[in-house]
Write a structure and sequence with these properties.
single chain; alpha/beta; 33% helix
Length: 314
Amino acid sequence: MRVVITDSIWGEAEIERGVLEPHGFDVVLAQARSPEEVVRAAQGAVALIVQYAPITAQVVEGLPDLRVVSRYGVGVDNVDVEAARARGVWVANVPDYGTEEVAVHALALILALVRRVPALDRSVREGHWDPKAAGAIPRLSELTLGLLGLGRIGRALALRARGLFGRLLGFDPFAKDWPEGVERAPSIEALLQASHVVSLHLPLTPETRGLLHRERLALMPRGSYLVNTARGGLVDLEALAWALEEGILAGAALDVLPEEPPPSDLSLLRHPRVILTPHVAWYSVTAERELRRKAALNVLEWHQKGRPLYPVVE
């Protein structure tokens, strides 16, 4: 049985092969970036393990032996889930591999923003020794942290942040397990109006794309902060630049962008009050190993039990 890894940033597949080859699978690593390349590379495959390659309806239709698509990661926005469902193809993800890492990264970005760490670092490197070089710094325990999304990662951040902030406020109409110490906001707008720091922990869907546009950002207190470690498409970048210039936002930190890597002419790349990291919030050595192993286990579980370990579509 053939399993094709359509693309991966690791350039090797020893972990995946270690899971699958003892059970008779032939694991092939490709570096396919377009639907046409995926179809060419994956003929005869019963399973795809996918990172960024687009798995469109064209791909699903062009691979008649395909039974499982397993994605490295939580989001499946590069997979046409409905097309897969229509063809009887399982779609699976790995929802729990980097929860701790993303929560910690979000908290690190929040602290760097509020404590003005990048600006102070630049000031010292430029030859200054001025504690007030970055302007007024608020006391963390006097601030409200707003959490948009309270799934695994939002809850993990709440656990780590509740001893630091004066108040935690959350909005998530789909949350199954509301975390202790987090007040419920009645709406997104109410959360934005009341929060000095907002951290995003939402999936990218047609309903959430562009969720933070100019009108919503304008609701935030002047001098507040925005952190996004979820999906780049949640934030309108033009509106974000506007909010920074207007002083509504004192800073923003983004681990994700609508286009990755970003175009060289993106103005936020040069903005002094924006922190950018390269979609790395999920990463640790342990998280990488767990991600790759569980992505392969989705395929093995399908083979042995008739369904993946973490099905997205039942």
